[in-house]
Amino acid sequence: MIKNFVEFDNVYKRYKMGEVTITAADGVTFSINEGEFAVVVGLSGAGKTTVLNILGGIDSCDEGRIMVGGKDISHLNKRELASYRRYDIGFVFQFYNLVPNLTAKENVELATQICRDSIDADTVLDSVGLSERKNNFPSQLSGGEQQRVSIARALAKKPKLLLCDEPTGALDYNTGKNILKLLQTKCIEDGMTVVLITHNSAITPMANRVINMRSGKVISNVVNHNPLPIEKIEW
Amino acid sequence: MKKQGKKSLRKNIIREILNTKSRFLSILAIIGISVGFYTGLRSSSPSMMETARQYYGDHHLADISLVSTVGFDDEDIQTIKKTDCVKEIMPAYTADLIVSQKNVDSVVRVHSLPQKTKTNTNVMNELMLLEGHLPVKDDECVVESYYMKYGYKIGDVIKFSEKTEKTDTNDILKHQEYKIVGIIDSPLYVTYQRGSTTVGNGSVLFYMMIKPEEFKSERYTNLYVRTRASDSKVSDFSDEYAAMVEEDLKTIKSISGECINRFNATTLADAQKELSDAKKEYADKKKETQTKLTDGEKKLADGEYELFEKITAGRQKLSDGKRELDDAKAKLAKGQKEYSDKLTEAKRKLTESQMLYADAQNQYNNAKTDYDTQIAQAQSKLNAAQTEYNNQYTIFYSSTKPNAETKLLLMKTAIDTCSDVLNKTRDEIEKLKNVELLTDDIQKQLDEQNAKLNEYQKKIDEYQIQYSDGQKQLAEGEQQLADAKQRLDDAQTEFQEQKANGALQLADAQNQLNDANAQLENGKLEYESAMTTGMLELQAAQTKITEGEKELESGLKELEKQEKTGLETIKLSREKLIQGKYEANTKLSEAEEKLIDAEDKIEMLKNAKWYVNDRDNNPGYSGLTEDANRVDNIAVVFPVFFVIVAALVCLTTMSRMVEERRTEIGTLKALGYSSFDICSKYFVYAFLAASLGSIIGGTIGVLTLPYIIVSTYGIMYMLPETVLVISWQSFVVSSLAGILCTCAVAVISCFRELTLAPATLMRPKAPKPGKRILLEHIPFIWKHMNFTSKVTARNLFRYKARFLMTVIGVAGCTALIIAGFGLKDSITVIAGRQFGELTKYNQIYALSEAETADKKSYLMSQFRKDDRFSNVLLVYQDWTNVYADKKEDRLEIHMVIGENQHEFEQMFILRNRQTHQKISLSDDGAVISERLAEVFGIKVGDVLNFTVDEEYYQCKISGITENYASNYLYMTEKYYQQITENRLRYNMIFTMTNDQYKDMESDIANEWMKNKDIVTVSLISDQVDAIEDTLESLNFIVFVMIFCAGLLAVVVLYNLTNINIAERTREIATIKVLGFYDLETANYVYRENIVLTLVGGAVGLLLGSLFTDFIMDSLQMDMVMFPKVVEPASYLYGFLLTFAFSMLVNFIMYFKMNKISMVESLKSVD
C-alpha cells in the first residue's frame, strides 16, 4: 500500500463567470492512500465536483500541485491528460453516460478498445452481475443496471483510480445501496482506490477516509479505521 | 401579465437566436442560397433580353429591312412610305468586297453609314462609337470593334483587292482604300455571326462603314424601315411586336409587285433595248474581224510556200556538190590504198633481199670460221704427229734399238756358251758311250750328262727363239718408224693441199657477198624514190578534197541561214497573225462576255424580286432569344437540388430544435401559455431565418448571377452593359416556398410536442433507443467492424431524414461538379470530333465563279500534282435555306456536293453516331446532319425543302450523319441535277494536307493564293483555334457551378455535423472522459460524414451523368450539337472535390468539437 497515493497540495481553481470570479477550489490540500475508499462529502457548491474533475484530468487547476501515483498531473498538456484519463482513471458518472447506440457489452468495449491492458468485457460484466443483459441497449436497462454498466466500463480499463460522481444520485435507495456495495466490494477485493463524491454524508461510515469540504476548502480529512459494510448503513 | 409574457417570449426568441447562431445561420444560408440562386438565374434571361431591347431601342434598330435583286430608287421609297405602317425609312448601300491582308483574303461587308432622314431626328440603326470619330472625309471608314481584335488600329488603311468575282471594285466604290478613323458597333450585328455571302469563301469576316456617297450605284441596295411596332411601347421580344411586324411585312410585300412592275416598264425596257443594240454591233464587229483574219492567214500561207521552194532548190545544189566531193574522196581513198600496197610490196622485197644478204654473210662467216678452225686443228694434229714421231724415233734409236741389240748380243753369247757346253757334254757322252762296259756310275753319269745336254739344248732353242724375236721386233720397230715417217709426210702434204683449197673457196664467197651487197643498196635507193613520189601525189589529191569540203560547208551554211531567216519571217508573221487573232477573239469574247453579263443582268432585272425581312433575319437576333430561353431552362431546373435540400435542412434543423426545447415547451405549457404563444417562438425563429435568408440571398443572387451569365454570353454577343431586370415573381415564389417550408416544419413539430401532456414534456425525452440494424444480422461484416463503425452504422440508419438530406445534398454537389466538367468535356470535343474525325479536309480554296469547267479541271489537275496534298476534291458548297414542313421554320445550312465520290468519302466521314456505321451517298437521296434532323424532326425517308437561288426544291433524306458544328446537306451531283434541273457550278477545292506538311499550311495556302483563279483560302486549323478560344469562356461557367456545388455541400454537411455534435455533446464529452484523443473523438463523429459523403458522391456520379445530359439538352443550339461526353476524369474530379468540401466542413467542425467541455458529461440530462 502506497501512502499518499493521491495528493492535493494547495490547489486553486477559479471560474470566471462574466465579471464574477468564483473560486471553486480554494487551496485544497489532502491526500489519499492506495486502496482506500475515500468519500468526499459536502453540500452543493462546496467544490467537491471541481476536485473530482481536476483529479480525473477533466479539468485543470490554476495553482497548486496534484500527485497521483507519484506523477504530477497538474502540468500535463491536453494529450497527456487524455492519456492519463485513458490509462489511469476510471470514471463513474451520476447519469451513467452510456452511448445509447451501443449495447451494454459494446459500451464496455468502447473503453477496452482504447486500453493496452484491459479486462475482458464479458468478465467485467459478469463481475458486476450483468451476465444476462450484455446485449441490451441502455434504453432497455434500468438505472441501476445502467450504472453497473458504467462501473463495468470504468473497471474494465484497470484504472489506478476509480472516480465516482454521485453514482447513486439518480438511483433509488436500494439500487443505490447495491451500487455502493459493488464499489466497496471492488475496493476491498481488488484493492482498487476509489474516490466517491456525494452530498449524502450518511454513507461516510463505509469509507476508509472521509474528506469534508465546504466553500472550496477541505475542512476535515478523517481516516476511518473501521469502515462499515454498506448493509449496516441506513439512511 | 400577458404583455409581460409576450415580452419575455420576445426576449426568449432573441436570446434563442443569439445562442444558436449556427443553427439560425444554416437555415438562413440554405434558404438564402436557394432563393438567391433561383431568383438570380431567373433574372438572367429577362436581363439579357432587356439589355438587348434597350440597345435596340436606343439605337433605333430597323424593324424591317428590304433587299432587292435590282436595288431601289427614290420612287420605291415614296411608294413604301405611303403605307400607314411605315414610320421611317432609310435607304442604304451594302457591298461585299474582298480585302487582302497578311496574305489572306477575306470578305468584308461594306455598309453605308446610317443617315438621318428628313422626317425624323433619330438615326436608324445608330452606331455605338467606341473610339475615334465617324468618317468626315470621303476616304475614311469606321470598322467594327470585333475586327480590331485582329490587331488593326485607328489610322490603318483597308485596301480592297481589285478583283472581286465578276465585278471590279472600281465599279462599286469611289475609292480603293479607306482609312480607319473610328471603331463602332452596329445594332445590326449582335453576335459574331457576320452572315454569308456569294463572294469569296462565302462568309463575311467583318463589316465596315463608309459614307453613302462613296457607293457608285445609282440604286440603293437596302432599305431599312421602322414601323409602328417599335414606336408603340410593346417589348421588342413580345408576341404583340412580332404580330405587328408580321402584318407590316405583308403590307410591304404586297406593294413590292407594284414597284417591280414599274421597274420592268422603265429601267428594264431601256436595258433591253441597249442590249439588242449591243448585240447587233457585236455581230458586225465579229464579221469584220473574221474577214481580216482570213486575209492574213492566206498571205501567210503564200509566204510559207515561197520559202519552201527556195530552200528546196538550194538543197538540191548542195547535194550535187556533195556527191562530186564524195567521188573525189573515193578516188583518193583508192589511190591511197594502191600507194600503200605498192609500198608494202617494195618494202617486203627489200626486206627479203636484206634477209638473204644477211644469211649469205652469215654463211660466209661461218665457213670462214670453220675453215680457220679446221686448219688450226689440222696444223696442231700435224704438229703433234711430228712431235710423237720425233719422240718415238729418238726413243727407238737411242734406247730400244741399242737395248735390244745388247740383249741380242747377250743372248748370242749365252747361246754360244750353251753350245760349247753342249758340245762338251756331247763329247763326254760320246766318250762315255765309247767305254763299253758301261758301268752304272758311268751309265748314271751318262744319263746325267744326257739330261744336261737336253736341258742345254732346250735353253739354246729358247734363246734362239728369243733372239730371233728380238731381232724381229727391232726390225718391226724400224719399219713402224718408217711408216710413221711416211704417214706424217702424207698428212703434211694433204694439209697443205686442203689449206690452199679452203682459201680459194673463201675468196669466191667473199666475191659473191660483195655482189649481193651492191644489189641491196640499189634496191633501197629505188624504194625510197618510189615512196616519195607516191606521197606527193596523194597529198595533192587530199588538198583538193579539203577545198571541196570547205566549199560545200559554206554552201550549206548559206542555205541554212536562208532557211532560218525565211522561217523566222514566217514565224513572226504567224505570231502576228495569232496575236491578232487572239486579240480579236479576246475583244470579241470580252464583248461577248459583256453581252452575256448584260443578258444576265437583264435576266436578273427581269426576275426582279424584293426580300422583305424582319429582325429575325438579322444574324444573331434570333439566337439571342434562344440563348435567353436556354438560360431560363436551366434556371428552372438548376435550383431544384437547392430547394429539396433546403426543405430537408429546415426540416431536420427545426424539428431538432423543437425537440431540444421540449422541456421549455412543457414548462411554458404548464405555466399556462397558449399553444399559439409557445409556437410563435419557433415560428418567428423560422420566419426570421427564412425571410432574412431570402432577402440576403435574393439580393446577392440578383446582383451577381445575371451579370455573370449575361457577361458570359456577352462573349458571344456584342451588347452594351447589362441592364438588370429582377424577376420579382421568382423571388416571391422561391422566398415564399422557403419561408413556408421552414415555418410549417417549425409549427408542425411544435404542435406535435404540444399534444403531449406538460408533465411528459418536462421529463427528458427518452433518447431515441438504440436499434439493431439490418447489418447486424450479417455477422460476418458486423463482427469485423469496430465500435466507431458500429455507432456510425446505427446512427446512419437511425435518422433517415438526415441521411436523405445529406445524400441528396452531397449527390447534388457531385452532380453539379460533374455537370460542370461534363459541359466542358462535351464542348471541348466538338472541335476535335468535327474537324479531324468527321471532316478531314484542312484547307478550302474558293474558286473564282467566272471560271469555266475546263479551267477548274485544269486547276484540279495542278492541285493533284502538288504532293503536299494527300487528297483534293472539287466541291460545290453554298449556303442554302432549309425549311421544315411549314415555311416559317428556316435554317441556313451548308449544302455540299463533291465531284468525286471516292475523294468525298475520304474527306467527309458520314456515319451513324451510335453505331459508327458508314452512310454512303446514293443518287436518289440526300444525307443531312444529325442536329438538323433533330431540330426539324426529320427521319430517314422524309422530305426536306431547300432553296437554291430562292427557288424551292425538295429532296428525299436517305441518311442522317453524325455532325457537331453547323448543319450540312450532302448529296451527289446526279441527284442535285435530277431534282433542281440546274447545272452544278463547282466553286471550291477542298484539300487534305499531308502530315509532314501540316506545319506549313499557311505557306502552302499563300503559295496557291498567287494563282489568280483562287479567290480565298480558309484554313480549318484557324477555325479550330477560333472555336477553342470561344470555349475558354466555359471555364468560368464551370467555376460558377463548382462554387455553387461547394456551397451546397458545405451547407448540408455543416448542418448535419452541427446537429450531430449538438445532439451528441454528452456522448462526445463522455468518450473524451474515457480518454479518447482529439483525433479519435473527431473520427467518432466524422465517420458518419465520410460515409454519407461517399454514399452521396456515389449517387452523385449517377445523377451527374443524367444532369449533364439534361443541361446539354437545354443548351442545344440549332447550329451546334453537343456530344454528351463526360470524361472519366470529370467523374473523378466531381467525387474528389465533393470529398474535399466534406473535409473542409470536418476541419471547421473540428475546432467546434474541441471546444466541447468534458464537464458537460457530468451535467444532468436536460
Explained architecture:
The complex is a heterodimer of chains A (235) and B (1166). Chain A has a domain of 163 residues: 3-Layer(aba) Sandwich (Rossmann fold). In chain A, the strands form two sheets. Chain A has a six-stranded mixed sheet with strand order 6-7-8-3-9-10, sandwiched between helices. Chain A is an alpha/beta fold. Chain A has six helices and ten strands; from the N terminus they run βββαββαβαααβαβββ. Chain B is an alpha+beta fold and 1166 residues long. In chain B, strand 18 and strand 19 form a beta hairpin. Chain B starts with a helix and ends in an 11-residue tail after the last helix. Chains A and B meet through helix 2 and helix 3 of A and helix 16 and helix 25 of B.
Describe the secondary-structure layout.
The complex is a heterodimer of chains A (235) and B (1166).
Chain A: E1 6-17, E2 20-32, E3 37-42, H1 48-55, E4 63-68, E5 71-72, H2 78-88, E6 89-92, H3 104-112, H4 121-127, H5 143-156, E7 161-165, H6 173-190, E8 193-198, E9 209-214, E10 217-223
Parallel strand pairs in A: 3-8, 3-9, 6-7, 7-8
Antiparallel strand pairs in A: 1-2, 1-4, 4-5, 9-10
Chain B: H1 2-19, H2 21-58, E1 64-72, H3 74-82, E2 86-92, E3 94-101, E4 104-112, E5 128-132, E6 140-144, H4 145-148, E7 157-159, E8 163-164, E9 167-168, H5 169-172, E10 177-185, E11 204-210, E12 220-227, H6 228-231, H7 239-434, H8 440-606, E13 610-614, H9 621-637, H10 640-660, H11 662-671, H12 675-713, H13 728-754, H14 758-762, H15 779-782, H16 787-798, H17 800-834, E14 843-847, H18 853-865, E15 869-883, E16 890-898, H19 901-907, E17 926-929, H20 930-936, E18 943-948, E19 951-961, E20 968-971, H21 973-980, E21 988-993, H22 1001-1009, E22 1014-1019, H23 1020-1032, H24 1034-1063, H25 1065-1073, H26 1078-1115, H27 1128-1155
Parallel strand pairs in B: 4-11, 6-10, 16-20, 17-19
Antiparallel strand pairs in B: 1-12, 1-13, 2-12, 3-4, 5-10, 6-11, 7-10, 8-9, 14-21, 14-22, 15-16, 15-18, 15-21, 17-20, 18-19
